[in-house]
Specification:
Layout (H helix, E strand, L loop, with lengths): L3 E3 L4 E4 L8 E6 L8 E7 L2 E8 L1 E6 L2 E6 L3 E4 L5 E5 L6 E7 L11 H6 L1 H4 L6 E4 L4 H19 L4 H19 L19 H16 L6 H7 L4 H12 L3 H19 L7 H7 L5 H12 L3 H7 L19
């Protein structure tokens, strides 16, 4: 199964098998991740998630959408979102992420302009839930299941089967949203622009992810999005339910843990590791690390050996470990 990573701007980059088939399918298990949580992210591709087991909460801007087993959600490109398992249950998602170019390779063609751009360039169309309570939802989920089956089995011609199912799924979406006339997406139509909070949070997160190794302050974060310190704190609380400082500290700790897992398990001292992720106080770094992971960095390093990795909280820079 393909993996995907996050670039420094937090947008996901798909690592597909080849450019001619820009489709990825993934298992996502929030309950195995740090704090049952898929961190805030967005990407250029389109995403459709199906809840296979348990209950998932999607946070999109200031909205929270609860999805139970058998329900799904379509997410448009560049939509900032996070996912968590509800009550820490064994939540499993099947995730389809694809570039719309698979439908029409030339994104400037008349077909692409009529059938693709009308959706992906519509700021009203941020998400759409998929449920089995109506025929449209059942058909959408049926095509989605066909796509997952084809890509997991990878039998001869699965790429063609996937493209066929995607075309049918996309046509249903266009008809549902009435894009042949005036776009109307029911519950998910909120406004014609992204919320100020979402725009600010994206810019602030980009700033933190770029400068987290430096001695940045709340003043710096607020200045990066051109608001006061108090408004910056309110914005973070409304959008991600954390203060800017809390987000910065958690991100630094996650980066430290990722360095242990992915890069350097033995050759770097704990003090050097702390400095590399922006801490100038090793004791404080150890204290925060233990708070978030219930073990010290040294203990985590020991567990990061291959034979013990199943004991660690699952997280990182791939979709299955965010």
């Amino acid at each position: 199964m393909q993996q995907n990573t996050l670039n420094p701007e937090l947008r996901q980059i798909m690592d597909h098998a080849n450019e001619d088939y820009p489709v990825g399918v993934y298992y996502v298990e929030p309950h195995k991740m740090y704090m049952n949580y898929v961190r805030w992210h967005w990407h250029e591709e389109l995403e459709i998630n199906l809840v296979k087991n348990g209950t998932a909460e999607f946070t999109i801007g200031d909205e929270k959408i609860i999805l139970n087993e058998g329900q799904g959600i379509f997410l448009n490109k560049n939509v900032l979102h996070a996912i968590r398992s509800v009550n820490g249950d064994d939540c499993i998602l099947l995730s389809l992420i694809f570039n719309p170019n698979i439908l029409f390779h030339n994104d400037s063609s008349a077909l692409a302009l009529n059938y693709i751009n009308s959706v992906v360039d519509d700021n009203n169309m941020r998400y759409l839930t998929l449920e089995r309570k109506d025929m449209w939802g059942r058909n959408m989920l049926a095509y989605l299941s066909d796509i997952f089956d084809a890509n997991f089995s990878q039998e001869f011609g699965y790429e063609l089967s996937t493209k066929s199912a995607l075309c049918q799924l996309w046509l249903l979406l266009l008809k549902k949203c009435n894009y042949k006339s005036t776009p109307s997406i029911g519950q998910s139509k909120k406004s014609t622009t992204l919320s100020p909070d979402e725009i600010r949070i994206k810019d602030a997160i980009l700033y933190i992810h770029t400068h987290y190794t430096e001695a940045i302050s709340l003043d710096d974060i607020a200045a990066s999005i051109h608001v006061s310190k108090s408004e910056c704190c309110r914005c973070f609380k409304r959008a991600v339910n954390l203060t800017p400082f809390e987000y910065l500290m958690r991100y630094r700790i996650l980066q430290a843990a990722d360095k242990i897992l992915q890069h350097d398990r033995n050759t770097t001292s704990i003090s050097e590791l702390a400095i590399s992720v922006g801490f100038n106080n090793t004791s404080y770094f150890n204290k925060l690390f233990k708070k978030y992971f219930n073990c010290t960095p040294t203990e985590y390093r020991k567990l990061s050996k291959t034979e013990h990795r199943d004991q660690l909280s699952h997280f990182g820079l791939s979709l299955t470990h965010i």
